[in-house]
Structure formats: structure tokens, C-alpha cells
Design the sequence.
């Protein structure tokens, strides 16, 4: 013969379950509202991330361009670069 | 062509641009040179280089400009096999170069010489720590950093880069004879640069001239100059008196010109070829 345990206070258990489900639903609604509110205001987190990434790419490109500028032409030892002329100069290079 | 001429970095600076250029861009270029001088001059007490020199042995936070200055100086030291050495400052000071020597001609003078500083170290460039993450520079103890052989050229490069970014299609930034040209010159022709008795036409390069006949003075009846041989720690004696270098950029031209004076005359062309630059010596 089997013995099944019966809940001693079925009404109390039902109330606890109902309250739990209501609380979970409430949290869910709050979470959805919060998510929608973030979507509705894209100027907040999304813009910050986007700007930061954009700046990093821009900085890297700027650094790369500056490094290339600071290196300059590399063909001078092979004959490029200057021609001697008998004409007035625009400016001069004197010892500094 | 528009031209701005003004005093900067203990010398005369010129900015030349072709085409229709906004005056604000030129004003900005002049301000930028002034900013770099205030950061780099060893004769400005609170410049970053002065603070660095007073703090040898510990890391010092510096601006990106100064980080670049020191990094490229160390790079030039390696590229020239040590003939360009920015750590000769104490030797320069020991022979009396402790104040700005302005003017286009040699200024004879009898400076106060601190003979104790002859003990100072040179040739320690390889021990400089440039931390690009923390943005600090640490000089080895007893060492001083002398921006004199690179600062004007690098300033010309940085300012010309700014002007290119502003849309200036052709120009020349010349700081005390260390210059950078880009794009077409007046009338669309190459830029013409006077070097001694010669004029050369150049395009998109840097040019610099170093000489032992500028910034010289008397010490105990001996005429000395500011270019130090890193090996001896004394003013150069056996090399050429003037060297002009054409390189890809002005900072490279300036460091190579300085390095060419710090060695034997006969090896000039060989060394210049090895560094990938063109040299004209006297």
C-alpha cells in the first residue's frame, strides 16, 4: 500500500505560488521597459561605444599617417631627391 | 606664395606656402612651433626636456610630442651607429654651452665652465626607456638629453604635417635651416633651396645643415663649438666643418648632418649611403 503525502495547507501553497509568479512577471515587465527605454534613447550607451571605437580607428590612422610622413621618401640614396641649378633660392639651409 | 618669417628656437623660422591658404592655418603653424619650443628647449626652465634632465634616473610623464622626440632621437642614434647621440648634453654644458646662442654669426664669449661636469656620462642613449603605454621617459642617471640636433627638424616635420592636414598642397617649413618641403613650389616647379653657394631643386624631402662654424665661442683662448664627438665627449675636430643632408624628412636630415660631422671626413659618403640619405659636405 502506498502512502501519498498530502499538502497540509493547500491554500497557503497556492498563495505563495501566485505571489511568486506575479513577482517574476513584474520583474520581467520592468526589464522589458528598461530595455525599451535604452532603445528609445540611443544617445546614451550606444553613442559612447560608437564614438570610442571611431576615435581609436581614427587615432590609429592618424598615427600611421604621421609615421609615414616622418619617414618620408626612401629613394634618396639611389639618386633621387635633388638637382643643382643656377637660379635664385626660395629659402636657405644654413647651419643651425 | 605667402611667407611668414619669425624668431623661433634660437634662430629664424620661415613658413612658405603656395596657393590660397587660410591665414588661420599659418597662425596655427606659428603657435605650434612656439608650443614645441616651450616643450623642448633646454633653456626654458619648466620645459619638459628641462624637467626630464633634472629627473634623470626616474620615469617622467611627458606629452606625445616629447615622447616622439625622444623616441626618434634614440632611433637616430641606432641608425647612425651612435654618431648622432642626444645624450652628450653634459659634455656640451661642460664646454660652456649653457645659454641660448642666438644670431646668424658665431658669438665669441668666455663662458663659465663647470669642469666637474666633465665627469658626466655620454653615450648612454641605449639605456633611455621610452614607455609608450604609460607615456613616460626615463633617462639613465647622470645623463642629460640634448634636443639640439633633432628638435628643429622634427618641429618642421610636425608643422608641415599639420599644414598638409589643413589642405595646404605645397609648402616649406624652415626652422633655422632645418626644413621640410612638400608638394609643388611657386609656379608649380620644385622648391629651390640655397645651400652655401649652390641652389638645389628638391621635392618632398627634408634638408638640414650642421656646421662647426655656427654657435662657437672661446674657452681659455680656444675656439670651441657645440658639436660633440660622442666618442671623445669633446667638440669634433677631424671631420668636415659643414654637412648638408637631404633625407626623407627633416628630423632624419638633421640627425644625419650632425652625425656626419662627428666622424672622419673620408667616410662621409659611405656613411650617408648606408643611412639612405644624400650628403653635401664642405
Sequence:
Amino acid at each position: 500500500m502506498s502512502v501519498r503525502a498530502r499538502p497540509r495547507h493547500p491554500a497557503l501553497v497556492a498563495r505563495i505560488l501566485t505571489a511568486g509568479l506575479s513577482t517574476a512577471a513584474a520583474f520581467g515587465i520592468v526589464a522589458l521597459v528598461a530595455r525599451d527605454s535604452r532603445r528609445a534613447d540611443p544617445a546614451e550607451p550606444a553613442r559612447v561605444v560608437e564614438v570610442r571605437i571611431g576615435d581609436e580607428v581614427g587615432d590609429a590612422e592618424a598615427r600611421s599617417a604621421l609615421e609615414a610622413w616622418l619617414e618620408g621618401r626612401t629613394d634618396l640614396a639611389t639618386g633621387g631627391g635633388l638637382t643643382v641649378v643656377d637660379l635664385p633660392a626660395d629659402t636657405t639651409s644654413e647651419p643651425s | 606664395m605667402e611667407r611668414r618669417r619669425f624668431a623661433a628656437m634660437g634662430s629664424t623660422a620661415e613658413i612658405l606656402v603656395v596657393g590660397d591658404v587660410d591665414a588661420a592655418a599659418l597662425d596655427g603653424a606659428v603657435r605650434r612651433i612656439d608650443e614645441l619650443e616651450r616643450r623642448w628647449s633646454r633653456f626654458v626652465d619648466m620645459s619638459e626636456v628641462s624637467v626630464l634632465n633634472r629627473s634623470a634616473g626616474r620615469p617622467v610623464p611627458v606629452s606625445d610630442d616629447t615622447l616622439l622626440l625622444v623616441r626618434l632621437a634614440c632611433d637616430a642614434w641606432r641608425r647612425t651607429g651612435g654618431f648622432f647621440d642626444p645624450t652628450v648634453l653634459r659634455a656640451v654644458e661642460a664646454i660652456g654651452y649653457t645659454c641660448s646662442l642666438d644670431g646668424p654669426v658665431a658669438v665669441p664669449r668666455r663662458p663659465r665652465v663647470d669642469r666637474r661636469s666633465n665627469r658626466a656620462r655620454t653615450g648612454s642613449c641605449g639605456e633611455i626607456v621610452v614607455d609608450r603605454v604609460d607615456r613616460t621617459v626615463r633617462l639613465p642617471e647622470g645623463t642629460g638629453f640634448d634636443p639640439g640636433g633633432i628638435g628643429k627638424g622634427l618641429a618642421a616635420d610636425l608643422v608641415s604635417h599639420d599644414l598638409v592636414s589643413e589642405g595646404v598642397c605645397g609648402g616649406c617649413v624652415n626652422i633655422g635651416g632645418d626644413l621640410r618641403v612638400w608638394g609643388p613650389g611657386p609656379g608649380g616647379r620644385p622648391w629651390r633651396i640655397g645651400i652655401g653657394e649652390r641652389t638645389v631643386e628638391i621635392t618632398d624631402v627634408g634638408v638640414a645643415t650642421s656646421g662647426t662654424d655656427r654657435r662657437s665661442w672661446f674657452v681659455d683662448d680656444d675656439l670651441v663649438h657645440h658639436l660633440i664627438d660622442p666618442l671623445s665627449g669633446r667638440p669634433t675636430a677631424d671631420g668636415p666643418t659643414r654637412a648638408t643632408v637631404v633625407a626623407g624628412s627633416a628630423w632624419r636630415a638633421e640627425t644625419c648632418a650632425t652625425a656626419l660631422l662627428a666622424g672622419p671626413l673620408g667616410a662621409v659618403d659611405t656613411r650617408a649611403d648606408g643611412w639612405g640619405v644624400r650628403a653635401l659636405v664642405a
